[in-house]
Amino acid sequence: MTALLLAAGRRSKVLVLVLAILAAGGLASQAGKLEGVVDNDPVASLPSGSESRDVAQRPVADPTERDVPAVVVVARDGGLRDGDLDALRDVVADLRRQPPGLVDTRALREPEQAPGGAAAVLAVPITDNGDEEAFNETVETLRDRLAPLRERDGLDVQVTGGAAFSADLSAVFDGLDGRLLAITGSLVLLLLILIYRSPIFWLVPFVTVIFAEGASRGAGALLGEAGLTVTGQSSGILSVLVFGAATDYALLLVARYREELRAHDDVHDAMRAALRGAAPAILASGGTVVVGLLTLLLADVGSTRAIGPLGAAGVALAMVLSLTLLPASLAVVGRRAFWPFIPRPGEEVAARRSVWERLGDRIARRPRRAWVGATAVLVVLAAGTLGLDTTLTQQDQFTSTVEAVEGQKLLSESFPPGLTAPADVVLGDPGRAEAVQAALGRADDLVASARPTGDPNRLSVVLARDPYGEAAVAAVPELRRVVRSADPQALVGGATAEAYDLRDAAERDNLVVPPIALLVVALVLVVLLRSIAASLLLLATVVVSFLASLGVATVAWDVLFGFPAADPTLPLLAFVFLVALGVDYNIFLASRAREEAERIGTRRGVLAALAVTGGVITAAGVVLAGTFSVLAVLPLVLLTQIGTVVAFGVLLDATLVRSVLVPALIHDLGRRVWWPSRLARQDGESG
User: Fold this and answer.
1) Cβ atoms of residues 321 and 24 within 8 Å
2) What is the pLDDT of residue 10?
């Protein structure tokens, strides 16, 4: 359809407009199904072959072994009263008479009082049948049924355990897509109005952005139905990514179109010229983001891997609509849509030199000093990565107060903290059960108790440490060593082991995927710029910019946000987003610099490119940073961390890196930057 736009006139543009709307609208009609395919089960994110996933998928002899406990904790300063315990027993009787939802009354036991009598617990087993909505509703119904207990003066009542953590995590994502859509859409709308200073023109790119977001969500729903694991996290990231990318591509095309309207009488001629100039950069930048995201398919962590095809599909749709729906819309509405700042043929841009031209002049006078200084600033900022700690645990993943976390703290004051999430030991030889129990009994620094279950092949192990805390997660290898000293074929699973295996897989992903992503992006740059030297130079600036952004964000998370650590998957996600999106701005600048170099030489060409793209790149950076910053207001640490690091990194890329570092490097190297292309030999400038 883009070729049709280049070759044809008004009628064909109307046809393209109609076809693009129908295609995007068809996909967008499926957007409502996206929430229905979301799966936040942590087991789905475990790498295949991991020990805890094998345990979770092993068949059980007793169906109650699949139950997940919601642990009711009641406590009172000075000790519980008889009436408190009676009220808790009444809750048990009520649950047995009218069990809510998926409560499994077969495994429901009487409450247990702590030594000293300050607290009591009631483990309410909830059947995990794969219906996440019904499971979470059961937890919330249980909390509602505790109203008589909560009304007792001075009695602290909390619900924790694996079921409560699962429900509270799902609650974070409940309605998340709608909130993100409203906040992000409003922000993009405001920025477009400020950028174009027109009461009507903002509507043209905004409609394209809305269609792109809706179509991407529809595509995500179809991918989920086809078997892709879509999490609430990846769904939220998809929205802000597509909003940002689609707006960036719109800004680039509109800037070139406005430029061409001053050189052409006919708007269709102007659009053809704009597409010839901007389409290659949009295709290259969008293609780079797509292939960069697709490298996440190599990740072992399922939630990380899912972001790859989901985000790639969204960016691809944003790119396609920016090259079909948007240009067709612009050509149909004509130049008057820019009112009151309508670009006219032969119109000269304001005589006052822009800030980008003045900046280019300063760079040209001392290019080496400029790039050395910019690099030094980035290196200093990158020093913050030395304090990066990627040991965030499940209980620390929320940015707001959550009942499951508060309940775990309350329980730990009077009971073994591991009571809420026992480790699950699958025996290789059931005859070794007593030996394994004995070995665990000797490891009293790790284990509070170990007991048989209704399944002769399994043991339930209550950890001596908070099962959701860092100490317990870090001790999983030692726990497995103790178990296998008595039964070499035994496996250890459960929530704590799952957290350890996810972290182990994330550490592997953080080492394996980035080099492959860099290689793929480098190949795209070489094809676009036809220069190995320029591709390596631009890629190096992106890597340094990523490290600087991560360094600043690491300090901010500690000092400003007070986060105990970063999520284990954060470094890889930040790397892929910042490298792929940062290269976008490299491509916008470098492709225009190469175009200008063909006419006026490399050194003058890069300054001309900075003058005409500086404004649009900065605007694009502000928009993309704004959309990602929306994630920072959500009550989950990982999303806040992704939002802050990408927002800062994009701004850093669009300003210091793309406005100073890259132009100064290209100016200093001169025609050598295009090696080995013919431009390195034909450029008329010396050096």
Assistant:
1) yes
2) 55
pLDDT value of residue 70: 92
For 107-160, what is each residue's pLDDT tens digit? 888 999 998 889 999 999 999 887 888 999 999 999 999 998 999 899 999 999
**Count of beta carbons in the 10 Å neighbourhood of residue 32:** 13
Q: Which residues contact 117 (CB under 8 A, 6 or more apart)?
A: 79, 80
| Peptide bond preceding 340 in cis form (omega within 30 of 0) | yes
Closest CA to 531 of 685, 681, 375: 681
CB 623 within 8 Å of CB 251: yes
Q: What is the pLDDT of residue 503?
A: 93
Please tell me the least confidently modeled range out of 34-43, 153-162, 313-322, 466-475: 34-43
Q: What is the pLDDT of residue 459?
A: 92
Helix then strand then coil, in percent of the chain rounded to 5, is 70, 5, 25
The CA R_g of the chain, rounded to the nearest whole Å, is: 29
pLDDT digits (tens, 9 = 90+) for 344-402: 877 665 545 678 888 888 999 999 999 999 999 999 999 999 999 999 988 888 888 88
- Going by C-alpha positions, the residue among 486, 502, 496 that lies closest to residue 446 is 496
Q: How far apart are CA 663 and CA 658, in angstroms?
A: 7
Look up the pTM and report it: 0.86
Strand order in the sheet with 67-75: 112-113, 119-127, 67-75, 156-160
Cβ atoms 86, 111 nearer than 8 A:
no
Residues 6+ apart with CB under 8 A from 226: none
What pLDDT shows up at residue 15?
Answer: 65
The encoded tokens of residue 453 equal: 């279950």
For residue 554, which phi and psi values (nearest 5 degrees)?
-60, -45
Kindly report, residue by residue over 47-78, the tens digit of the pLDDT.
888 999 999 888 877 777 778 899 999 999 88
Hey, how many other C-beta atoms are within 10 angstroms of the C-beta on 13? 23
**Partners of residue 383 on adjacent β-strands:** none
Lookup: tokens for 622: 């502000």
Coil vs helix vs strand at 630: helix
Distance CA 647, CA 581 (A): 11
Cα–Cα distance between 99 and 68 in angstroms, integer? Answer: 15
CA distances from 209 to 54, 181, 199, 395, 644 (A): 43, 11, 18, 37, 23
DSSP line for 237-277: HHHHHHHHHHHHHHHHHHHHHHHHHTT-SSHHHHHHHHHHH
- Distance CA(463)–CA(472), nearest Å, equals 8
Query: How many CB atoms sit inside 10 A of residue 95's CB?
Result: 17
What is the DSSP-derived secondary structure letter of residue 61? Answer: S
Which of 361, 384, 377, 285 shows the shortest CA–CA distance to 652?
377
Contacts of residue 271, defined as CB under 8 A and 6 or more positions apart, other chains included, come to 5, 13, 257, 260, 327, 330, 331
DSSP track, 515-582:
HHHHHHHHHHHHHHHS-HHHHHHHHHHHHHHHHHHHHHHHHHHHHTS--SS--TTHHHHHHHHHHHHH
* Cα 291 from chain centre: 16
Q: What average pLDDT does range 460-477 have in this prediction?
A: 93
Average pLDDT (163-192) is 80
